Amino acid sequence: MTQIGLNHFLFVSVVLFCLGIFGIITRKNAVMVLMGIELILNSANINFIAFAKYGNFGYQGQMMALFVIILAAAEAAIALAIVLNIYKTFSTVNVDEIDTLKD
Amino acid sequence: MTIYDIIFYLFAAITVVSAFFVVTTRNIVYSAYYLLFTFFGVAGIYVLLGADFIAVVQLVVYVGGILILLLFGVMLTNRITNVQIKTGTIKIVPAAVGVALFAGILSAALLKTNWKTINTEVPISTAHTLGLLLMQQYAVVFELLGILLLIALIGAASMARK
Amino acid sequence: MTENLLIQFAIIILFLPLLGFVVTLFLGSKVKKIFLFENFVLILAFILSVIMVFAKLNYYPQENIVSEFHWISLNNVPLFGTLNIDLGILVDNISVLMIFVVTLISMLVHIFSIAYMHGDKRYNRYFAYLGIFTFSMTGIVFTHDILMMYIFWELVGLSSYLLIGFWFEKKSASDAGKKAFIVNRIGDIGMFSGILILFSTYHTFTFDKIFTQISLGVLPFNSEFWLTVTGILIFCGAIGKSAQFPLHVWLPDAMEGPTPVSALIHAATMVAAGVYLVVRVFPILTGGALEFIAIIGALSAFIPATIALTQNDIKKVLAYSTVSQLGYMVMALGVGAYKFAFFHLVTHAFFKAALFLGSGSVIHAMHHEQDIRNMGGLRKKLPLTYATFLISTIAISGVPLTSGFLSKDGILAGTFAFGSLTGQWFFAFVGFFVALLTAFYMFRLVILTFHGEPRNKEKFDHAKESPFVMVMPLVVLAALSIFIWYTPNPFNPEQGAFLSKWIKAPTIVVPQNARYSFMKNDVIKPAEQVQTAKPKTEAEITFSESYTEAMHHAHIPAMLLSLTLAGLGILLAFSFYQWKKLDPDKLANSIKPLYKLSYNKWYFDEIYQATFVAFTLGLSNVLYWIDTYIIDGIVNGSATVTKQFSKFSGTFDNIVVDGLVNLMATISGFIGLMFRRLQTGKVQTYIVVVVFSLVIILFLFKSF
To answer: Where are the domains of chain A?
Structure first.
């Protein structure tokens, strides 16, 4: 076991990212899709901060992470509103049943 | 095996395992609770990486805000009385294959890359520096983000009310 | 009174009737009494023309007053050079005398019509038509160029057409109008061709300029023959308008119009326009053209006179008499008796108008009965009409103390002189024979109408003398048929101012060798003639000494002969119809073919029907056949070809072009069908695809 370095953090980030995508793909419920997105955002944040520590970027990585968190908050609010609208329109939040785009 | 390493592995495990349960648990409410652990783990990793302020923000915003919002979403979009909060999954196999392949590729990529790293010194607290940066270099972005949040707030409210 | 004032008078006289026409026509349906305005306008025009006649004859007895303007200025036309079309007014002795006749008779006819047309449903329109007729006739009289004359010539034809067909509900009336119009067009074609020849040769329409150029030796196509042809062509217009043989057939039919119209247009003025035209162009007529004119005149004098012998319609008799008298005038012009032709034009206008208006009075009294076999004895009922009618009849028969005697005697003397000079006695013979016939048929008419016992008792009882407005014109016109207005000596017209001072024979301008032999030694030198193209002094009078001399010699024998013949005619008429010494029916039976020939008007209408009309109809049929079968066949054939081609093109479109398009569409649709399966509408499927794509891309671009 080597010393904990950049690769370890990035690996955690990769796993998180892939789990997020897996969640987005497999879960029917729209809220679950949102959770997957949060996971992806978190993985991205880990990347930012890891590079901030191990790269020569100063505090820019941390700033970006901060902004991403803020955007995530806004995104969550909007996405939830959208989910509520979808629910009102289709009486369901299962994404696989919502395929009117096909027609 | 330093204490640092132990703590890292601990937090990494919490993060990854809870994230796995988030995406695999059938009960959506459970998923939300697992997500809480994931956020905690991520926050711990931030701390390990020397980003204490971000870790705090992570806890406050994600756990205190976003997670609650997600739970509200679950509540509002499922008929509680029917207890229909379990949710199915679809395309497990192709998703698993694709994601595994993707993960393998990304891992291979990051392992094969020869990262040029420097180990910067970790300051005691980053809050002071970040505060200065926000007020100086990123002042415009900061203001724009404030406006964005306001717009998101109003937009979400008006959309949800319809 | 200046010359300018005379021109202004002429213009006012010209346009007053037009004003009357416009006002009467447009207000006719609204204002019932508007016809009084038309009458007022005519009376005004007449007063002005009287002033004009006096002014012109007293102060400017020799001048030709001309006022002209450029109507169209075509500068520098290719092939022609500078070209201007002038219109203008010419006031000379002939035109003022003619305008006096026209306005006087027109005014009297207007007044006469007030009573005669009373109660007609288109009363005001009738007066409007009379107005435009007077306007056009005035235009003919005052013109100084042949183009303007042609314009008014056609206008006159139009108003004649309108007035003949005035009672167009009657088929015969509308047919007569059409006949008059079409027959006149035939003559006008000739006149128009003549005008075109003149214009293409001389580049002007003005009479004086044409005369000057001819006297300088410029001839159409450089030949005297073509000058003769031109003269005859222009005379064709006169043949049509003056109802000369062979185009005289329209005039008797024109009697379908109202009787005052017959008096004004078809006896006194319009038909005289043809004679007036010949008078105007007299200087350019060559010997050949004059000979032609004389022959036409002689035939026109003789044939209708024979027809008039047997007609029973009072107006038809007068109509044929008119043609005959016009033939007299034309013949007089043809033999060179220029002054007497114009003189006869004037005197004839008066007494023929009186005869027609008198017949109108009779018809009015008999409630539109025109057949003289149903009349008789009317002199007791219509004393004034009878008196005036009788005076006019005496005048037309050529009895001394009347104007008709003076003018007719002059014409007969002219033909006599012509015969003695050239040896052609034909015209003199015709002239004297027609004089006999005239006296006979006119007195036959008078006796049958006014003398004897009434043959239709019922109508006779209802008849009564016409009102003042109808009798007054009769009296005026009958008074003008007395010799005293023209000459103090009832046996020598030359003593009067009319012939000795007012009318002068014009200078002939045609080349010497194209003239009658007796006119040759007339104009002395061409060089002098250039300066004095207009007849101004006594010395330049055209007619040679020999002709004047011959006239002088012919005067006494001609007078005696014509007197004898007129007396014989009158005597015959009386013995046939008054004293019943001779039986006309027995005579008619004994010369049955001749009688039938005359009674049926020499079968002119039938001949024309069988030849020209039938030919035209046949030609139309042939053309129709060509149209139907050949032209339409070509059109239809090309249509069929086009249709077939279109059909082929349509098939090609349907199969080949549409097939290609459909093929492309089918291919696109097939491809779409294949790709459609990818579009599930499920976001998650898309993401799977994206992930796999990313994997593939990363493999492809692997750098590790």
So the answer is: 6-90
